[in-house]
Task: structure prediction
Amino acid sequence: MQNKNGSSPNRTLIQALVVGLVLAVIGIVLFLLIYAALDQVDQATRLFTALCSPPVVIGIIAGLYALYVRNSRED
Result:
């Protein structure tokens, strides 16, 4: 069975899983980099910043992707 855009549900699921995996790896790498970079900062500030920054970056990436897809579908 195919969707309106011609792709099968299995292909769409695999694409979503790959995108989720890439975003998860980006989040983990960003956490480790930020945590290591803030070595001279207070422990609580260091942890809070390292935990809150990756979701913001992932949200920006996802938002830019959504805008890109929306604009490409309108053309």
In short: Residues 43-74 form the longest helix (32 residues).
